[in-house]
Design goal:
- The chain is an alpha/beta fold.
- The protein folds into 3 domains: about 50 residues, no CATH class; about 120 residues, P-loop containing nucleotide triphosphate hydrolases (Rossmann fold, 3-Layer(aba) Sandwich); about 35 residues, no CATH class.
- About 35% of the residues lie in helices and about 5% in strands.
- The protein has a 4-stranded parallel sheet with strand order 2-3-1-4, with helices on one face.
- GO terms for molecular function: deacetylase activity; heparan sulfate N-sulfotransferase activity.
- Keywords: Glycoprotein, Transferase.
- This is Bifunctional heparan sulfate N-deacetylase/N-sulfotransferase-like.
- InterPro entries: NST/OST (IPR037359), P-loop_NTPase (IPR027417), Sulfotransferase_dom (IPR000863).
């Protein structure tokens, strides 16, 4: 059974449950058993493993049922979500663009996260998604008159990001920066040299391309 709270003030709730139990008990091949919420969750996610990573939706997004916003945590404001997403890709100047924008009084951005290269990466990190909406919103300053921006370059090519972003932030604006592919690849190579990648330090850029090592240049 779900939505127990919906039946709390319903005078027909007790009758409905009694009739349901009576109906089930009349069938000898059906056995009623009790399972705790954790046990039910374990059974469900073993049956539907694809649902382990949730699709978050802000209660404030519900235009048909405003009571969802009324019962939402008072410590978190519905406006504490970004209106602009800089989704990369990497080495296209998204960090520079963000730094220019936040120098203007109209914009502010998320707090830096040292565990993910200063980016939140909420929508592209399945582990991060499990932290929930409150955690995501806590990465941003409290609502003011500024426009909130999030930059996470990993959103660009993650297959689940479009659906996750659209579900939680349906009215956000997505900014993608395009750059000459050759210049971008060379910039990525230089980036890896700075971060002391073994391949980048021991091979030239031409050698990396000729030996198809680009896919091995990781952080």
């Amino acid at each position: 059974m779900t939505h127990f709270s919906n039946f709390a003030g319903d005078n027909l709730a007790q009758i409905m449950f009694e009739e349901l139990i009576t109906f089930v008990q009349r069938w000898p091949q059906i056995k009623l058993v009790y399972r705790s919420q954790l046990q039910l969750a374990d059974i469900y996610f073993k049956t539907f493993p694809g649902d382990i990573i949730p699709l978050w939706n802000l209660p404030c997004n519900s235009l048909l049922n405003s009571r969802h916003a009324d019962i939402y945590s008072g410590d978190i404001a519905c406006q504490r979500t970004p209106r602009i997403l800089l989704v990369g890709p990497q080495k296209t100047g998204s960090t520079a663009l963000l730094s220019f924008l936040v120098n203007l009084p109209e914009f502010s951005t998320s707090y830096k996260d040292p565990d993910s290269f200063e980016e939140i990466q909420f929508f592209s990190n399945s582990s991060g998604c499990l932290f929930g909406i409150d955690w995501y919103q806590s990465r941003f300053p409290l609502p003011t008159n500024t426009i909130l921006i999030e930059k996470s370059a990993t959103y660009f090519d993650h297959k689940m990001c479009p659906q996750r972003i659209h579900t939680l932030l349906p009215n956000s604006h997505i900014v993608i920066i395009l750059r000459d592919p050759v210049e971008r690849v060379y910039s990525w190579f230089q980036h890896q040299r700075v971060h002391r990648n073994i391949l980048a330090q021991n091979y030239s850029f031409i050698d990396i391309l000729q030996n198809n090592f680009m896919n091995k240049l990781t952080r």
